[in-house]
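re the bet — no i am not wrong, look at it urself. input seq straight from the record:
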Amino acid sequence: MPVTLDDKLVVAISSRALFNFEEENQLFEAGDEEAYMRHQLALVHQPARPGVAFSLVRKLLAFNTPDVQRVEVVMLSRNDPASGMRVFASAQAAGMRIERGVFTRGRDPFAYLRPLGAHLFLSANETDVRQALSIGFPAARVMTDSTPAGDRFPGEVRIAFDGDAVLFSDEAERVYQEGGLPAFQLNEVDKANQPLAGGPFKPLLAALHRLQQQAQASHTMRIRTALVTARSAPAHERAVRTLLDWGISVDEAMFLGGLEKGPFLREFEPDFFFDDQTGHVTSAARHVPAGHVSSGISNTERTAGA
C-alpha cells in the first residue's frame, strides 16, 4: 500500500518558526542566497537554538510511539535544499523525529499544503500565511520575538485560540465593525441558538480533538485547549453553543470583555496562541508564543488601508 498521512495530525512548519534563524535570515532577506547557504553549511553540525514553535512541535511529536505514529511534522521552507541539511540536523540533535521536508529556494511553498493535507501551517512569512489561509488551510504568522513557552506542563500540549475569525467565522465581528458593541451584543443574543460557521482554525481544533481521543487510553500526553475571547456575557452563550453543536469541547474559556489577553495567557501558559487581531497578538507575545491569523474583516480592512 502507498504511504499516506491521512490518519495523522499534520503540521507544516518553516525553519524560522521551529528554530531561531533570525541572524541567518538577515543574509537571506538581503538577497544574498549564496552567502546564506554557505553560512548554513558551515554551521551544519551546530544545532540551531529553539524557535517560537519549538515547544509546540516537540510536545506534539511526543504523541508518537514506536508502534503508532499519530503526528507528522513536515518542514516547509523557502530555504534551499543544502541549507535544509542544518534544519534536519538541528531537529535530530533536539531528539525530534522529522523525516519529511520541502525546500523551495525562495519560491512560494504554500501550495504543497494540499498534497500534505496539513492541519496547520506555521511560518514567519506573512505572504505565505495569507496564501495558505486563502486556500483553506489553518495558518499563522509566527511572532519570532515571542516569549518562549514555559516548562511547567511537560505532559500537556497547551493551545489557546481566539474565537471570532479564528475558531469561528467573522460573521459577528462584521456586525461589531459596522454597528459597534450594542449591535454586536443584540445580534449575538438574538442568534444565541444559531451556531456560528466555522473559522479557519476549526479544522485544527477538530484534529486536536481526534488526537486526544485516539491517545486517551494509551498515552501519558494530553491536550489542553482554551478559548480566549474579547466576548463577554451575554454574547458568550452563542460561542459555547457553537462548540457544543460541533461536538468539540475546550478545557477552558475566558470571556474577557475587551481586557488585555496577555496577562491571562501568561497564567494559562500555552505552547501557542492564535489570534486575528494584531493588538491581541502583540499583547500575548510578551508572555507566550503567539501567531497572527490574517483572516476576517479586521485583516481585510488593514490590507486595504496599507
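see?? The chain is about 40% helix and 15% strand. told u. also The CA atoms of residues 235 and 260 lie 18 Å apart. so pay up
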